[in-house]
Amino acid sequence: MWNAGPAWPQVTKGAEHARPPAEIEEVYFWAVLARDRHPWPGDAAPAGAWLACGWAYGVVQLLNWVCGVTGVGPLTGVRATGRPALYQVSLDARGAMTGARQAREAGQPVVAGRMEAMMETFLWLAGWNPLPPVDRHGHVAFEDCPERDAACGCGAVGRCLGGECLACVRIACAEAFGAEGFPLSALGPGADNLIQGGPSGQ
To answer: Contact at 8 Å (CB) between 160 and 178?
Structure first.
């Protein structure tokens, strides 16, 4: 990822993002939907719910920076003028690798999910993983979505076609949410807790 051997220690330095800005912004939109789909779980929630909550937040947080919404890397604090270079993003992915291991050892599924999501998001940005870390329905990568690979025509008309679209027969895609109707709660309560690992050590 950042170390291709002693002769080339920074393999992504100078490399371009493999994804065009429009594609990255589309997945960012999906990630905000995923954040709304996976809010802070209750105390009795299964481990998968905590992991999914952290994952959705991790994707949003990293793409906030990649899309230029925020000016610093979420883990490193690296500042970028405009959108960060792929190499700069790789530094946060490197920190996420260490953070994920530590979170797993400490039994903190939300933090582990957040770190793993940042790693997977970087792999997608670099073109090393063809699948984005979230899908158009707001599912995170490890969730089952039978229509994930189905062709979606909703973007062409600017709205979710629901049952008229093979990809959205069961669950509406992100096109169901207009600019004014998008669930802004996706970036709301619980975000600070995610950074610290949760109020009960999750």
So the answer is: no
Number of domains in the chain: 2
Residue 187 maps to a domain = no
pLDDT for position 175 = 87
For residues 78-107, give the mean pLDDT.
94
* Euclidean distance between CA atoms 5 and 177, whole angstroms: 46
Three-state SS for 114-164 is HHHHHHHHHHHHCCCCCCCCECCCCCECCCCCCCCCCCCCHHHHCCCCHHH
Range of 153's domain? 146-179
Cβ pair 34, 134 in contact under 8 A: yes
- Average pLDDT across the chain, whole number: 82
Residue with tokens 């207009």: 178
Burial class (CB in 10 A: 0-12, 13-18, 19+), 39: middle
